[in-house]
Amino acid sequence: MSQTRIARITAMDPVWRTVRDEAAAMAKAEPLVASLIHAVILHHDTLEDALSYRLAQKLADANLSEMVLREIVGEAFDSDAAIGAAARADIVAVRERDPACCRYIEPVLFFKGFQALTAQRVAHWLWRERRQDLARYMQMRMSEVFTVDIHPAARLGKGIMIDHAHSIVIGETAVVGDDVSMLHSVTLGGTGKEDGDRHPKIGSGVLIGAGAKILGNIKVGACSRIAAGSVVLSDVPPCKTVAGVPARVVGDAGCTNPSRAMDQIVRTSVNIEDIVPSC
User: Fold this and answer.
1) Phi, psi dihedrals of residue 274, rounded to the nearest 5°
2) Which domains does the chain possess?
3) Which of 152, 229, 218 is nearest to 189 (CA)?
4) pTM for the full predicted model
5) Disulfide-capable partner of 242 in 74, 89, 180, 247 (CB 3.0 to 4.6 Å)?
């Protein structure tokens, strides 16, 4: 591809342009990571190519080589433009919501929450293409590498941020809307051995605190907040805060966009002993 065409593509893609600019500055500032920067970012013409390379690096093993995985991920990006669009929205979400993220390049290089989300989107494409065994293989590798276990059939929106991304579990029939933020040790699970539609449906703009467990085929309304450590077993109305074990409504969400505000402090007049069981 000519340099003129690369420049034209980059100019039309502000996220990729910013990532490349940051990559050049990073390579200059820290020569010891320059080879990594060139391999992952600067040797590629598009964000999709860079992500294909990065995911293949991370997920390859003795059974599926880096070259094969790169072809699989690239095929998914080529076949479904929504995967690349979601990746860009996820990068922006991390940059805007995570105070530990100072540059757009950081999720691509370093953040396993973003990398796991992108890998799941590829696995979901494989699942829809009826290549379910390969999708399950990718799920296994995601769990081993990123400690994030998201079923390939789960449906995820765009603009999602998973902060820290340790011990995340999202079940097969779960649905997560756009602009959702969740912290580590969140479970979107079932309640037993039932089959069928058995996992939560998370509305757009929801903030899910660390360690929260949302169980069963229940709905969490848009722009609501789930307090850290809560166990949610029933529907949550939109624009409310729930807390406790089991969780119950303790107040309004406190703002119009909880997932973007990332305010996890529960301000309530409810007696804390009423929502947290005693030992």
Assistant:
1) -80, -20
2) 1-147 (1.10.3130.10), 167-279 (2.160.10.10)
3) 218
4) 0.91
5) 247
